[in-house]
């Protein structure tokens, strides 16, 4: 079999790249190309930063993270920003049209080891779901909490944002 035949087999597994990729194909692409993602930087009136709890993944342990997501094929950047707010926070936001910061994040791992992260300043337009507010105990996947300082258990790639906590 030649390379074109292998590519054809892989392409048959992709039904609609605008809605995401099968996990195995996504991971293959992440091994050979940077992933471009958006992160939503949201502060409240007390100058606290909104973080959500993320489950243990393939590349780092569980921890707090800035809500974000990888841009899909032919998806507009700001569309992804608003979809992240809807999907991860169940709310609506307004955002700046340009990122407040761009970071290149390289991790020493096979999969998902190179990111170009676009950090957008956002404001909540609707309330966060009260049922997902973290109060005490062990945080659960998807719970949110306002943070005055950068927590020690923030996921490794998001430590680049520590300077934005006050």
Low-confidence stretches: none
Shape: globular
Query: What characterizes the major β-sheet?
Result: 5 strands, mixed
Percent strand: 25-35%
CATH superfamily label = Nucleoside Triphosphate Pyrophosphohydrolase
Query: How many helices does DSSP assign?
Result: 3
Radius of gyration: 17 Å
Mean pLDDT: 95
| Whole-number total of structural domains | 1
What class do helices, strands and sheet pairing give? Answer: alpha+beta
Describe this structure in words.
With 166 residues, the chain is an alpha+beta fold. The protein has a single domain (34-164), classed as Nucleoside Triphosphate Pyrophosphohydrolase, CATH 3.90.79.10. The chain is built from 3 helices and 8 strands, in the order ααββββαββββ. The chain has helices at 3-12, 23-32, 77-89; strands at 35-42, 49-54, 63-65, 68-70, 93-95, 101-106, 114-124, 144-147. Strands 1, 4, 5, 6 and 7 form a 5-stranded mixed beta sheet that branches. A hairpin with a 7-residue loop joins strand 6 (101-106) and strand 7 (114-124). The longest helix is centred in the middle third of the chain and has 13 residues, at 77-89. It is globular. It starts with a helix and ends in a 19-residue tail after the last strand.
Helices and strands in order:
Elements: H1 3-12, H2 23-32, E1 35-42, E2 49-54, E3 63-65, E4 68-70, H3 77-89, E5 93-95, E6 101-106, E7 114-124, E8 144-147
Parallel strand pairs: 1-7
Antiparallel strand pairs: 1-4, 2-3, 2-8, 5-7, 6-7
